[in-house]
Amino acid sequence: MRQEFWISTIPTGQGRPRFYRRGNFVGTYDPETSKGYKLDIKYQVMDAHPVKMQGPLTMTVDFCMPRPKAHYNAKGLKKDAPHYHEKKPDIDNLIKALLDSVSGILFDNDSQISVLLATKKYSEVAGIKLYIQEV
Questions:
Q1: Which residues, given as ranges, of the chain have pLDDT below 70?
Q2: Do 130 and 4 touch, CB atoms closer than 8 A?
Q3: Nearest to residue 122, comparing CAs of 78, 63, 76?
Q4: Which of 26, 11, 10, 19 is nearest to 95 (CA)?
Q5: Cα maximum dimension of the chain
Q6: What is the pLDDT of residue 31?
Q7: CA–CA separation, 61 vs 132, rounded Å?
Q8: What is the tens place of the pLDDT at every residue in 24-46?
Q9: Is this model's pTM higher than 0.85 or not?
């Protein structure tokens, strides 16, 4: 079984965890920006009526980052405009936020992901292309 999803959002990395102290107890929580971003992904995937997958999985992810204005001139896209995005956010933080969002919806635990291919590239339309299939 193979499932495909298009998530309309500007890809954002997982933020650093925040800590708080109550007496001798120390707890952690997600920053508000990460929490809202992950909920956005979760609801868009749930709206596509996914089927929860079992066993080892292969996942291919394309993070389509918005192009800056410097990539364009009066005639359109410059010939020397880069294809791949090499700036922040880091690809591992992008993956972490995505896997946290879809865990429990597409699969039980992100430890089921056996093969992962991720790219971070520029695009005219920002979003995330997600392909997942059982091995």
A1: none
A2: yes
A3: 63
A4: 11
A5: 62
A6: 86
A7: 9
A8: 999 988 888 889 999 999 999 99
A9: yes
- Give the helix/strand (H/E) hosting 100: helix 91-102
Q: How far apart are CA 1 and CA 4, in angstroms?
A: 10
Q: Are 85 and 121 in contact (CB under 8 A)?
A: yes
Torsion sign (Cα): 49, 56, 130, 69: positive
Q: Look up tokens 């929580």; give the residue.
A: 29
Cα(5)–Cα(88) distance, rounded to whole angstroms?
Answer: 24
User: Which strands sit side by side in the sheet containing 2-7, from one edge to the other?
Assistant: 2-7, 127-134, 57-66, 113-123
Which of 54, 55, 65 minimizes the C-alpha distance to 118? 65
Coil vs helix vs strand at 116 = strand
CATH of domain 2-134: 3.30.1330.70
Whole-Å CA distances, 98 to 79, 109, 135? 32, 13, 20
